[in-house]
Amino acid sequence: MRDVADAHVLALTNAGDDFQRYIISATTPFSADDCDSLAKDAASVLRQRTPALADAFTQREWALPATIDRIYSPACAAEGLGWTSRFGFGEVLAQLDRRSLEVPPVGANICRKSE
What we know:
Elements: H1 2-13, H2 35-49, H3 51-59, H4 75-81, H5 89-98
């Protein structure tokens, strides 16, 4: 959430066109070349690209995802706003370990509001 807030401040104060759209997310460890492999065997790609994340899943006895069907890149936000992510998976895992209210616990039943 802090990264998103920072991006909003930059978007409100930048001199670019009105109504620009950016993807605000942690920097991805993947590239477009990984898409086919992520769709077929994401666990192997995760182990190769982010061994620390794969180890964190193992330590918590979580299964790595079998597939990942999309990659989000904040590269345009970096270029257009000068924004960079300060928080990644390491911080999310640390918040989970601290039972931070910013990150719902694993397996939490999060209900959606009916429309």
